[in-house]
Design brief:
Blueprint (H helix, E strand, L loop, with lengths): L6 H15 L9 H15 L10 H23 L10 H26 L2 H24 L3 H7 L1 H29 L1
Helix pairs in contact: 1-3, 3-6, 4-5, 5-6, 5-7
Amino acid sequence: MALFDNLSELVLFFVLTALIWGDWYAPTVSMWSDYELFKKWHLRASKYMWLPPTLVFPLFCVLIYVLMEVAFYSFFKSAFQNTSAPAELIPAVAFLFVFNLCCTKQWIAVYMVGRRTYLAFGLMLGMGATAIVLVALFGFYKRWLELGTYAPYLLWWLGALYLTVRTWCVEKREETVKQVK
């Protein structure tokens, strides 16, 4: 099976690539400045919680984005060939994918740059709920490639949840110390 069998599959690939990777090519913020902001966050946060070395986060994010693109490209490439799945599956997966991607990208900005923990929790809820439903749909309809390449996202989500909860605990402790003084 070729990667692109026709023009519509090529367009699908480029649309998914733009959606997933688009913010890294935005003219307002370069990938290098994102990495510099991340290093400042890592230095500050590592005083309060255990964090892996700084190179682990960007590599894991790139890996997760690549796996997400493989999962959704594979799903949409073959979605109209599988007649056993209901017609509602395609728009449902498309909506869940876009919503999950929006929450994921906003979480990174809200948590690491904006340090707004309560909003980060709301985004975590959206990320987790859509990811669990997507994994369940891929498993239920026996979309094994999609399931196998999207399931690692749940590991990423658990790591993000750890960071958010741990940061919230540190912030609450600091508020308590300020109130006592």
